[in-house]
């Protein structure tokens, strides 16, 4: 372990990175006044500055290999936090990875805006979203990070959303299929513990969380009937990661034509992908859904920003999924947007566009 990735080295480095970003803000605000200096000439100064600062944040996070621990205590959340025990053994197919240290473990999740009523007769019958957060499989904590997107879901898509925690690859035994095991446990909790019908549940995820949803859809298509997990009402994918195998190589981002108009840092993406990817042959279709289209068990709605480094991959993924007989796929592109504005559009200068995307996702869900 290098001095930078161990304590106290990482804290010293992180403090310096924070101070550097504070110093950069006014400088960048002046630098980006001429349109020709901005990553995209149609972006605002604020969008340009935040793209730069977010890129810097992700770079330094990866450089010190910051670790986010899985916190399964309620804290101040009260009944909005739910601890979830692993589902019954029969819902887990054992052949998806050869690491014996990766096995179903307790997980949890957080309800937005309030805990759903435990009495089925008292519920509205509106769609309930099971959502998986972004973070490149190495960071993310919905306790602090999820309020903007969760608010969009409550106001514009469904009545409640349950944000599932999942094991991160920055921790030991966190590579695939750990996150999928946790996702299946969360789905089982909604179906069995709360008796929410599958026809009322919409799977949802952004970035790495979108990849989890794709993994769930493949798993349910291939094993759902055998393990007793029915197909959900639909699935929402916001800026999903679709090519984890390629992402292990930072050059795949550095050579991307949208590299200058996205804040995703190559070191961050390759760090997360390298920690997450499982090279077991049985896991290959899950690692690279871009190359392995499948028959989805439910309709899919996909969003991507036109200035994302993921744009080409997501567009190809959509085309290949559409080519599978019986699939129902809807694709929405926000031409000027960088990565995952649905999650952090309020911070990045894309709030209005994120709200519009949520409205369109909500209309799609209502039409199912």
Automatic annotation (TrEMBL):
GO terms for molecular function: hydrolase activity. Residues 129-341 form the Alpha/beta hydrolase fold-3 domain. It comes from the Eukaryota. The active site is at 207. InterPro entries: AB_hydrolase_3 (IPR013094), AB_hydrolase_fold (IPR029058), GDXG_lipolytic_enzyme (IPR050300), Lipase_GDXG_put_SER_AS (IPR033140). Keywords: Hydrolase. Coiled coil: none annotated. Pfam families: Abhydrolase_3. Belongs to the 'GDXG' lipolytic enzyme family. PANTHER family: AB HYDROLASE SUPERFAMILY PROTEIN C4A8.06C, ALPHA_BETA HYDROLASE FOLD-3 DOMAIN-CONTAINING PROTEIN-RELATED. This is Alpha/beta hydrolase fold-3 domain-containing protein.
